[in-house]
Design goal:
single chain; alpha/beta; Glutaredoxin; 5 strands; globular
Length: about 100
């Protein structure tokens, strides 16, 4: 699981070739914290087929807003720099996250 910053996001996600999973989370986001172990588990399980990254939006607010991240948690998949699917707030369940990953590997 690669921890992104506002300085590395463009290189690691927007300029990456292929698909990249991004976990957008925040410091005070309880659902984000609850999902984190599961997302890390998925990264271990599917990391050879999909690049897994995470961005703390508390440290990159402008970037998050630029990516239209208006509520948390958000799990998104990018392909060649374009966001192609995302799960937002209540839709970001363990079941939905794994199903989304499986659709893209």
């Amino acid at each position: 699981m690669l921890e992104l910053t506002k300085d590395t996001f463009e290189q690691e996600v927007l300029k990456a070739s292929g698909k990249v999973f991004v976990d957008f989370y925040g410091d005070g986001c309880v659902p984000c914290q609850a999902l984190m172990p599961f997302v890390h588990e998925c990264a271990e399980k599917y990391g050879d087929k999909l690049k897994f990254t995470a961005l703390n939006t508390s440290k990159a607010r402008r970037l998050a807003i630029g990516q239209k991240i208006l509520g948390l948690p958000v799990m998104a998949i990018y392909e060649n720099g374009e966001k192609i699917e995302e799960l937002v707030k209540d839709d970001a369940t363990e079941q939905n996250i794994e199903a989304m990953i499986l659709r893209h590997i």
